[in-house]
Amino acid sequence: MKKFAPRSRKVRILATLGPASSSEEMIRKLFLAGADAFRLNMSHGTHEQHAANVEIIRGLEREFSRPTTILADLQGPKLRVGTFAAGPVMLTVGASFRLDRDMTPGDATRVNLPHPEIFAALDEGSRLLLDDGKLVLRVQSASDDVIETIVEVGGMLSERKGVNVPDAVLPMAALTDKDRRDLAFAIDAGCDWIALSFVQRPEDLSEARRLMGGHGQLLAKIEKPAAVSRLDEILEMADAVMVARGDLGVELPPQAVPPLQKQIVETARRLGKPVVVATQMLESMIKSPTPTRAEVSDVATAVYDGADAVMLSAETAAGDWPEQAVAMMDSIAHSVEHDPGYLDRLHFTKTMPDPTTADALAEACASVAATASAKAIVCFTASGSTVRRIARERPSVPILALTPRVTTARRIGLMWGVHAVRTKDIGSFEEMIGKAKRTALRQGVAAGGDKIIILAGVPFGTPGSTNVLHVATVRGDELRAHGEG
Questions:
Q1: Which pLDDT belongs to residue 485?
Q2: Residue ranges, the chain, pLDDT below 70
Q3: Which residues, including other chains, have CB under 8 Å from residue 351's CB and lie 6 or more apart?
Q4: Phi, psi at residue 371, to the nearest 5°?
Q5: Selecting from 2.30.30.140, 3.30.70.3270, 3.40.50.300, 3.20.20.60, what CATH number does the domain 12-76+174-339 have?
Q6: CA separation for the pair 302, 279 (Å, rounded)
Q7: Fewest beta carbons within 10 Å, which of 263, 417, 429, 449?
Q8: pLDDT confidence of residue 1
Q9: Would you state the CATH architecture of domain 89-164?
Q10: Extents of the domains making up the chain
Q11: Longest Cα–Cα distance in the chain
Q12: pLDDT at position 120, please?
């Protein structure tokens, strides 16, 4: 078993696996280059392929004794037009175009739309966006069977192209039959997080939560304008949130996405929920070994804003330079986090604790660590909730999360600045202090003479009982004295 020191970088890197990164050799390279967590995109690949990737990741976890996070991203409903009788058609600006329930192949005047939910939700003046927003239709009238529109932005339209409905909340579930099968697979495979697509309202999370049965944690992807308007409620229901900028950028004007990104990140941080910024972060690295300066700035902005994680999609799943993309993201994050003004910028967002003992102590950790010049915060946690509260405060020192539960250790991989260590249960205050000091030494976050902050709950092993904050001084012979030198 190889020793793997905690990464000095605070923001986490989530790398998507795909055709370019499904070999054991490449997944190992991504891990060593800086990937903290791996995303399985359930829109592509078979269950057998995803299961093989899970096994590779768990093998690396055992080899390096480092709990590693796996996120399964569900596809969600895909809205598409039907077929055309004679191939692609040209939609001309100002022309009429009808979408209907007739299964007959379409032409330049009409096409089938096999989604009755859309018909019921539209009002006069609503927009329909086709082919990732390349074409725009304005609704003139809508009934249960026919939608009459005027073409506002024209172009070629091919069959089965996607449809976005930015101006309405669609009366349809976020989970399809395929999603339910994929969710069952992900839970059986031991995935740590489930990402739910097509979230429009907090109720959309309920079915996924029920089907998960307490296994894994639930991340809501914010990719529709309707979700932004109910962001606080969705975050109360979810365990984490993702800024899915690809679909947001289709349904909203491009210039609206950056302020929304900041709003979502700030809201998630305020509520103490991990937040992932995703999509097109290093897009040019799909084909190029280096990013554009604008992409570097984009990643840096997410790090400065305090995102818990930044995600690579096609860059690692299908690109020519997957390892280099992870290494570049790692390098950008390191550069930002070494900026002397980085922590000051992070704390522009005010995070008010709830009136609980756990929140009060978590908030105090960051302040005590700074005042006492401590080198690390060591938190004993069963469920991960206490360490999440500490991470919300964005302390200046590393956070070690000690937990006996492998599931908790793996889930922590999306939290800012936290390194999870799986350890046995503790039974006494003295054992807690000793184990915290030895772990800090072993993990290289403290040396002899350094102070560490220890946070735990008494009685030990009881979730939600955080009530002890202790400052300890590490001795250099701590490991030898315990027979571990």
A1: 37
A2: 1-4, 459-465, 479-485
A3: 269, 270, 272, 363, 392, 393
A4: -70, -40
A5: 3.20.20.60
A6: 12
A7: 449
A8: 56
A9: Beta Barrel (2.40)
A10: 12-76+174-339, 89-164, 357-481
A11: 83
A12: 87
CATH fold group of domain 357-481 = Pyruvate Kinase; Chain: A, domain 1 (3.40.1380)
Supply 153's token pair.
């932005």
Report whether 326 contacts 33 (CB < 8 A).
Answer: yes
Active-site annotation, residues: 39, 80, 221, 279
State if pTM tops 0.85: yes
Q: Where are the beta strands (DSSP E) in 202-330?
A: 217-222, 240-244, 275-278, 309-312
Distance CA 446, CA 122 (A): 60
Q: What length does the chain have?
A: 485
Name the CA dihedral angle for 418, 298, 245, 49, rounded to a multiple of 10 degrees.
Answer: -60
Identify the pLDDT of residue 115.
94
CA distance 294 to 292: 5
Strand order of the sheet with strand 418-422?
418-422, 399-403, 376-380, 451-457, 466-473
Instruction: Please tell me the chain's helix, strand, coil percentages from 3-state DSSP, rounded to the nearest 5.
Output: 40, 20, 40
Q: Name the amino acid, one letter, at 384.
A: G
- Which pLDDT score is estimated for 192? 98
Distance CA 236, CA 223 (A): 17
* Distance, CA of 428 to chain centre: 36
469, 364 contact by CB (below 8 A): yes
pLDDT of residue 18: 97
Closest CA to 243 of 255, 231, 253: 231
Burial letters for 453-483: b for 16+ Cβ neighbours within 10 Å, e otherwise?
bbbbbeebeeeebbebbeebebeeebeeeee
| Class of residue 434 by CB neighbours under 10 A (exposed 0-12, middle 13-18, buried 19+) | middle
